[in-house]
Amino acid sequence: MRGNEISFIAAFGEKDVEVAISSASGGGGSTYHLMFDRFYKGIFVFRDDWQVLFQHYTDEYTSAEIETLIAKLTESNSVI
Questions:
Q1: Residue 78 per-residue DSSP state
Q2: Are residues 54 and 44 in contact, defined by beta-carbon separation less than 8 angstroms?
């Protein structure tokens, strides 16, 4: 069975990024994969609230940009 995915274009700083948020088949509802321009960046995980955990630490993205990603996930959570 295929997992569910939402994708959209988002502006991060001076560049536009193709963002894909997906749940792996059988992965449950508290973890989602995060891809930027088809490269794996990390996960969303629910631990009392939604958090973004990047695979490699980066300060490239602002907290406002991360909050926007979380908002997009929670808006679409009934679809994913």
A1: T
A2: no
